[in-house]
Amino acid sequence: MALTFHQISIDELHTVLNLFKEAAEHIAKMNINHWQYWKNPPAEKLKWVQDGILNNEFFFIKNPETLTIGMVRILNNDKLYWGEQTKPALYVHSLVVKTEFNGSGLGKTIIKHIEGRAKQENINCLRLDADAKNPKLCTYYEQLGFKHVGVVTLPLSTYNLYEKDIE
User: Fold this and answer.
1) How is the beta sheet containing 157-165 ordered, strand by strand?
2) What confidence tens digit (pLDDT) does each residue in 49-87 have?
3) What CATH class is the domain 4-165?
4) Residue 125, by phi and psi: left (phi above 0), alpha (psi -120 to 50) or beta?
């Protein structure tokens, strides 16, 4: 499926927060305590999203019919989760696929698209994190070829760090 990535503007912040909230509600239905802070986001998370939008790091993902099917944040560095790194990478955050599109392989397609972007930028590595309380998500990323390379504990949770070399 051909997907397009559309830069999110600050006036679309409400839509971004709604996508996070919908994802948190869906995750809660699976009895997983992951992302529940998005139901009523704390100030530091709101600032994190606003900063990402202002830095042109957030994208809506649209299908060929231009329907928004999800969103993602793509960064060139991520000191908060990863600290200082010497090997260049693209960092994937906040990958959300709307519930009605779950299970259709879109997550894998989105990751492949980001890999293509990395290659265009002569970057041979993707990095991401997954909440350690969500083993299903961690396994999913491992099935996509990501290797578990560390753990970081931040105020809201503990996260597994994953890295994937792009060939």
Assistant:
1) 4-7, 58-62, 68-75, 90-97, 125-131, 157-165, 147-154
2) 999 999 999 999 998 888 899 999 999 999 999 999 999
3) alpha beta
4) beta
**Residue type at 121?**
E
pLDDT, tens digit, 9 for 90 and up, residues 6-53: 999 999 999 999 999 999 999 999 898 889 999 999 999 999 999 999
User: Model-level pTM?
Assistant: 0.94
Question: Residue 11, CB half-sphere, CA atoms under 13 Å: how many?
Answer: 0
